[in-house]
Amino acid sequence: MPATTSAADDQAKRQAQAQVNPVQAQGNPGAPDLEAIARQGSRWKRMAVRIPTYIADVKENPAWLPMFVLARTLPGRRAHWLTAKRYSKPVTAARPSVFGDISAEAAAKSLKQDGIFAGLQIPPEIHGEIRSFAEETPCFGNFNRKLEFRAKDHAEAEKRFGRPLLSGHHFERCLDSPGVRTIQNDPLLIDIARHYLGAQARLITTRIWWSFPTKASEADRSLASLDKFHFDLDDWRMIKFFFNLVDVDERTGPHVFVKGSHNRRKVKHQCTLLVGHPADEVLDYYGKESAVTLTGKAGYGFVEDPFGFHMGTVPETRPRLMMEVGFGVSKPSRRRFHGEPILR
Ligand SMILES: [Fe+2]
Fold first, then answer.
1. How many beta carbons lie within 10 A of that of residue 324, not counting itself?
2. Ligand 1 (ion): which residues have CB within 5 A?
3. Total H helices, total E strands in the chain
4. For residues 154 and 165, is the Cβ–Cβ distance under 8 A?
5. What does the alpha-carbon distance between residue 183 and residue 323 come to, in Å, rounded to a whole number?
6. CB neighbours of 146 closer than 8 A, spacing ≥ 6?
7. How far is the CA of 229 from the centre of ligand 1 (A)?
8. Closest C-alpha to 180, from 20, 295, 16
9. Dist. CA 209 → ligand 1 center (Å)
10. For residue 231, which of 286, 304, 309, 293 has the smallest C-alpha distance?
């Protein structure tokens, strides 16, 4: 942990601290948690559990409602893309990027065509620091702030809390890591975001989290939303950077993205309240060859348009640690179903 932090960092952390989702803040270790419902609840239960958060969002920012209704449709999205302001990179480039000589224009072109650009790599000293930080800093299980434990104590924590702990989020604590702040503020990330989303693009979220191997049965897994492709409905236009912070192979719960699904969509998948759909239904439409599984060594990263179908998979062999940095174009809502800090 650094001895000092910048005023901007402190402000971001204070804001993040102040924005604890009331549902999380009232977390009761004995009650079914949001993650269990999200993964295993019925369709109606999954929708019902989010209604209080949706109502809070609309009260806080009425502009959220048209986005929530229309941004799931291609015509709605395309209309909003017309408002993208043209971005031209400043001639005087600021700091060098830790990612080296990568063209933001080429990355944005790949995002437009496929919905994804891969091949980013965090230098070892930075991803090593983030990993050490995540190992030493207590995280919160299943999005519940009352289930606090260190990743290395996962098995003991499951016994102590009497339930499977599928994930461990660091929430706003992640901003105490110098490496996390370096990556979220890297000039390449905002450059790619502005080339793709337009000049209005801004940093919205940063998070790091563990996914732990689960004892869930095959039946549980097929019920779980992790076996379903979904799209994110957080903004009209967004991109998310993801970085593996441990080596990720086929059995470490890799992220999967369906190429081209960000700009082509079945009507059935637009006119629905649900963002998640069964994997076979999605792959029948786009073709199995469109699904890209993002395995890679620690530090490997990629950026995607999360309107495209994607899913996390369950690690089978060892815990997975990931980092996400999201950029959008609207004022962020305080909705924090995933518990990430919101930066303004
Ligand atoms: Fe997602």
1. 20
2. 232
3. 14, 13
4. yes
5. 9
6. 27, 28, 29
7. 9
8. 16
9. 14
10. 309
d(CA 68, CA 10): 31
Q: Which of 310, 249, 241 is nearest to 279 (CA)?
A: 310
Q: What are 294's strand-pairing partners?
A: 255
**Residue pLDDT, tens place only, 281-340:** 999 999 999 999 999 999 999 999 999 999 988 898 999 999 999 999 988 766 554 555
CA 225, CA 210: separation in Å to the nearest integer? 17
pTM of the entire predicted model: 0.83
Distance 276 CA to ligand 1 centre (A): 9
Q: Tell me, what's the pLDDT at 27? A: 39
Task: Please give the domain boundaries of the chain with CATH numbers for all domains.
Answer: 7-328 (2.60.120.620)
Average pLDDT over residues 41-59: 72
- For residues 50 and 143, the answer to whether their CB atoms sit within 8 Å is no
Question: Of 20-29, 40-49, 55-64, 155-164, where does mean pLDDT reach its minimum?
Answer: 20-29
Q: Which residue has the tokens 């179903």?
A: 337
Q: What would the pLDDT profile of 23-47 be if each residue is shown by its tens digit?
A: 333 334 445 555 555 555 566 766 6
